[in-house]
Design goal:
Oligomer: single chain
Shape: globular
Strand content: under 5%
Structural class: mainly alpha
Distance between the termini: 18 Å
CATH topology: Alpha-lytic protease prodomain-like
CATH class: Mainly Alpha
Number of strands: 0
Length: 218
């Protein structure tokens, strides 16, 4: 999809169809994320897993992001860019929270239940792969669309990391794999948030989507 897809005339039938499809996908993503947040937060407390709790908080943050995206979808690019900054700040706040909790748990944490971690991580991974697949076509849009895609992509990566943590906890009988993965997820949120702020700032300065030299965040 062109990086300037959101700069089209809103009265253009193609643009209207494009936004309608994107809005429908956002509603699906919002519903999935709210449901998975509820599942993971209960499982995280039951299993005593910080990485699973981090993933649950991430689902909650993403649900907020999708809701904000729906609210500003038909507004001017500048407002979408400002919304993207808000979402990026929430991503980075999540990252800092997880890193701080991981440090605290080094001295105060308990060994989590690997079986619960693994089972819930598989369910979360399937949910996020589905959402990421739906959003893939919009990954090169404006900062608002890009932030939504990055959230979904990061979630899928985080789910794989939680699965690895579950295997590590099961194999070592310690909480270290859980803490390491939680730290990784926090760092990933900080990296993704900074990338979105960079693109949104460019859009606010120039009044258009960021040029392709910004590249994709891996």
């Amino acid at each position: 999809m062109s990086a300037h897809c959101c700069s089209h005339d809103p009265t253009d039938p193609k643009s209207i169809t494009h936004l309608t499809r994107y809005r429908r996908i956002l509603w699906i993503a919002l519903t999935v994320n709210v449901f998975m947040f509820l599942v993971e937060v209960v499982a995280a407390w039951s299993a005593g897993s910080l990485s699973l709790l981090a993933d649950a908080v991430d689902f909650a943050g993403d649900a907020m992001n999708y809701a904000v995206s729906l609210a500003v979808l038909a507004t001017a690019l500048a407002w979408r860019a400002r919304a993207a900054v808000l979402k990026a700040v929430s991503m980075m706040g999540f990252g800092l929270y997880v890193l701080g909790a991981a440090v605290w748990s080094v001295w105060n944490g308990e060994v989590p239940q690997a079986s619960t971690m693994g089972a819930v991580a598989v369910a979360a991974l399937l949910a996020n792969i589905g959402v990421a697949w739906l959003l893939y076509a919009f990954r090169d849009g404006d900062a608002n669309m890009r932030s939504v895609w990055l959230c979904s992509r990061n979630d899928a990566i985080g789910n794989v990391a939680v699965l690895i943590a579950a295997l590590g906890v099961f194999g070592t009988g310690t909480a270290w794999p859980d803490l390491i993965v939680a730290g990784f997820m926090g760092a990933l949120a900080l990296h993704g948030g900074s990338a979105v702020i960079k693109q949104a700032s460019a859009e606010l300065r120039h009044g258009k989507t960021a040029p392709e030299e910004h590249g994709r965040v891996h």
